[in-house]
Amino acid sequence: MKIGVLGAGQLGRMLAIAAYPLGHQMAFTANSENEPSVLLGKAFINDDKQGATKQLTNASEVITYESENTDVEVVKAISKKTPVYPGAKSLFTTQHRGREKAIFDKLDIPCAPYQMVNSLTELEQAVNKVGLPAILKTATEGYDGKGQFVIRSNDQLESAWQSMNGVEAILEGFVNFKRELSLIAVRGIDNSHKYYPLVENTHHNGILRLTIAPAENISTKTQEQAEHYMQTLLDEMGHVGVLTIELFETNNGLVANEMAPRVHNSGHWSIEGARTSQFENHVRAITGSPLGETTCLQQYCAMINIIGKHGPVDKVLELSNAHPHLYGKTERKGRKLGHITITANTLYELNTTLAALEAFMP
Ligand code: AMP
C-alpha cells in the first residue's frame, strides 16, 4: 500500500524501514529536507502546510502520524478522503492530559488525583484538593519532562503558574512510585490485539535513557492487569495501530500516567528483541494485515538512547549482541540522535553489555 506519514522524524524513518520488506511505499510531510525520514520515501515539504498535507493525502492510501501534537482538524479533514489510523478519537484523547485522565476515570484505570487549572486562583483551589507535593503540567504539548513544575510548598504556587505561560494546565498529585513501566499494544482494523511485555524505563532530566524488556519481576497478574487496562482503552477509542501507556508501579499496584497513540521510544528494543517490532506491527495494523507475534526473541532485551552526542558508536559494533540505530541528526544537547538495542540470554550477559556501553549513559 501507499502509506503517508504526517511528520518525518525518527519514528517515521523506523516505520519506513519496517514497511519496505512488506512491499509498501512511504511518503511524509517534512519541515525540511534534513529530517530523518526524508531519505526513506517521498517528502512533501511543509513550506505551505496545507499544501504538503494535501499532496500527501493524494499520494497515499492510508495515513498515520508520528506525534500526538498533530492537528485533530487536519486528521478529520483527511479522513473524509483517506483513512487515518489511529483515528481522530485516539488523537483527540491522547493529546490532552485532562482528556486522558477522564478516560482513565471512565474505564476505572487508577491514576493520580488531578484538577484542571486555568489561573493562579484555580491552582490554589486545586492544591487544596490534590495536596502537596504535586506536579503542574501543561495540558497539551509537553514531552520529555518539558512544561512541568514540581510543587512542594505553597510559596511556589505563583512561580509554578507563571512557568505555564498562561496555558491550560493540570495539577497531578505526586505518585510515590517504585519504578516506571510502559506497555505497548497494537490493535488491528479487525479488532485483533497483541501486547508486548511490560518494560522498565529509566529517565534522566526528563528524557528516557534506558529500557529493560521485559521488566524484571513482573507477575502474570500485573501483566494481565496492564493488558486489561490497555484493552479497555483500545476498544473505547476504537484505536487502530500501536498505543503506548506509561505506568507507575506502586505498592498498591499500577497507576496510569499518560498515553501515546503511536510507536514509542520505550518500544525500540523490539526491533532486534521481539519477533515482530512495534514498527512492523503498526504498519501491519494500519494496512489491515494480520498482526505479528510480540514475544521476546531472547531472555533479556534493552535499549539505550543516544542523547546529545553520538559518542563511541564503534564500540557498539564490537559487541555481538548490540545494534546501533542512528537517525541521521546533528548533535545538540538533549536531542535524541539514535538508540542501541541489546539482546542477551542471561542477566550476566545483559549486565556486562550495559557496562560495556557505559559511555552512552548519563
Ligand atoms: P510525563 O511527561 O507525564 O511522562 O512526566 C515526566 C516524568 O515526570 C515521568 O516520567 C515521571 O518520572 C515524573 N512524573 C510525572 N507525573 C508524575 C506524578 N504524578 N507523580 C510522580 N512523578 C511524576
| Low-confidence parts | none
Give Rg in angstroms.
Answer: 20 Å
CATH class descriptor of the largest domain: Alpha Beta
CATH topology of the largest domain: D-amino Acid Aminotransferase, Chain A, domain 1
Overall tally of structural domains: 3
> How is the main sheet built?
9 strands, antiparallel
What compounds sit in this structure? adenosine monophosphate
Instruction: Give the overall form.
Output: globular
Task: Give the quaternary arrangement of the chains.
Answer: single chain
Number of beta strands: 17
What percent of the residues sit in helical stretches (DSSP H or I)? 25-40%
Structural class: alpha+beta
Description:
The longest helix is centred in the middle third of the chain and has 18 residues, at 220-237. With 362 residues, the chain is α+β, with helices and mostly antiparallel strands. The relative contact order is 0.12. Helix 1 packs across helix 10 (278-286). The strands form 3 sheets. Strands 9, 10, 11, 12, 13, 14, 15, 16 and 17 form a 9-stranded antiparallel sheet that branches. A 4-stranded parallel sheet has the order 3-2-1-4, sandwiched between helices. Strands 5-8-6-7 form a 4-stranded antiparallel sheet, with helices on both faces. The mean pLDDT is 97. It contains 12 helices and 17 strands. The protein starts with a strand and ends in a 6-residue tail after the last helix. It folds into 3 domains: 2-84, 3-Layer(aba) Sandwich (Rossmann fold); 113-173, Dna Ligase, domain 1 (2-Layer Sandwich), CATH 3.30.1490.20; 179-360, ATP-grasp fold, B domain (D-amino Acid Aminotransferase, Chain A, domain 1, 2-Layer Sandwich), CATH 3.30.470. Strand 13 (241-250) and strand 14 form a beta hairpin. The chain binds adenosine monophosphate. Adenosine monophosphate (AMP) binds next to strand 14.
